[in-house]
Design brief:
This protein is α/β, with parallel strands linked by helices and 323 residues long. Helix content is 34%, strand content 28%. The chain has helices spanning 53-60, 82-87, 104-114, 119-132, 148-159, 178-193, 205-211, 229-234, 279-288, 302-311, 313-322, and strands at 14-22, 28-37, 42-46, 68-73, 76-77, 89-92, 166-170, 197-202, 214-219, 222-228, 238-246, 260-265, 268-274, 292-298. The radius of gyration is 24 Å and the shape is globular. It binds adenosine-5'-diphosphate (ADP).
Length: 323
């Protein structure tokens, strides 16, 4: 167990301190990352491609060697007791990597076999995880005949064979359509509700928003924001709207104090305003300028905006200046 755990304090499911990784080619994938994921949490590691997400979970699950820093899984230091730490983790990699010519039941049973689970126990467990993943009726079919969504759920079921306390998924829904994604979300929510801590990496903001209670946003090897999802969303003080205009927009748009606006096209107005501002002021000003609003919609997911603000080139330049 952790040497520095105090009695009564909860040992995090994952504790990462000042984690650094420089690959052989000199790329600094992680530049001193620290975070803690509490037991029972559903945690998102969010960031654009190349941010360092896969490197971070690769290190946590002992597939990638770290260059510096400390990682503990439920208090077990991965450098001191690699195999104990690995036994606590179930990993669902990005690519489907089971044998397509095996049956889901055998895939699950054989996987548990690698971890030394006795056959009878593995068979009972396979039935349970396949039922939970809504795959029990496919248990004896050739895996290659499963749909894309079923294959993804089989990846999750297989990882659950060893009863991991921490399930880590690397971009679990990359490139899959929304229906499959929703099915996977349901499975993951149930696994989390039953007590397994889940960490996933994603660049789908919608995914993080709908599943996760806490998150870290990582960009270019650095954590740029972390905390409860709700607190992050509350930080957003600007709301964006798109107004569909009746007729044509005038060449010169009215100036409404505190807002920024521009014409997307001849009849669509893009407007950002402080969240505290009264929308009626905007309507009045538009009305006065002879602009009639036919309909309006919020411009984008608010998390999306936060993400762009935190991980854009401008934000990165500011961080570098401050460093
Ligand atoms: P993400 O998962 O957020 O897309 P990665 O952790 O895969 O990010 O990559 C972070 C950075 O490290 C990228 O610049 C990537 O090109 C680099 N990188 C990842 N794996 C390797 C590797 N095996 N060798 C060299 N560079 C790598």
């Amino acid at each position: 167990m952790s040497l520095d755990s105090t009695p009564g304090a909860t040992v995090p499911a994952l504790s990462v301190r000042d984690l650094r990784k420089t690959y052989g080619n000199g790329v600094q994938a992680l530049k001193g990352v620290s975070l803690a994921v509490q037991p029972g949490d559903f945690y998102a590691l969010l960031g654009p491609n190349g941010a360092g997400k896969s490197t971070l979970i690769g290190i946590a699950s002992s597939l990638v060697n770290k260059s510096g820093g400390e990682v503990q899984v439920f208090g077990v230091d991965i450098s001191r007791d690699r195999s104990a730490a690995m036994r606590l983790i179930g990993l669902v990699p990005q690519e489907i990597n089971f044998n397509m010519f095996e049956k889901p039941f055998d895939i699950c049973v054989n996987y548990a076999g690698f971890y030394g689970v006795p056959r009878a126990e593995a068979e009972a467990r396979a039935e349970q995880v396949l039922k939970e993943a809504q795959l029990w009726d496919k248990a004896q079919m050739m895996s290659r005949t499963l749909s894309g969504g079923m294959k993804r759920r089989l990846m999750i079921a297989r990882a659950m064979m060893t009863k991991p306390r921490l399930l880590i998924l690397d971009e679990p829904t990359a490139g899959v359509d929304i229906e499959i994604r929703r099915g996977m979300w349901k499975t993951l929510k149930e696994i989390n509700a039953a007590g397994t801590t889940i960490i996933l990496t994603t660049h789908y903001l919608e995914e993080a928003e709908s599943l996760c209670r806490n998150l870290a946003i990582i960009d270019r090897g650095t954590i740029v924001e972390q905390g409860p999802m709700k607190a992050l969303l509350a930080k957003l003080d600007v709301e964006g709207f798109l107004f569909d205009i009746d007729g044509h927009l005038p060449a010169t748009l009215p100036n409404i104090e505190g807002t920024t606006m521009h014409a997307m096209d001849d009849h669509t107005l893009d407007l950002d305003m402080p969240r505290a501002m009264d929308l009626n002021r905007v309507f009045d000003a538009l009305n006065d300028a002879g602009i009639r609003v036919r309909s309006m919609r919020t411009k984008s997911n608010r998390l999306e905006e936060l993400f762009v603000r935190l991980t854009g080139d401008e934000a990165a330049a500011k961080r570098e200046q401050a460093a």
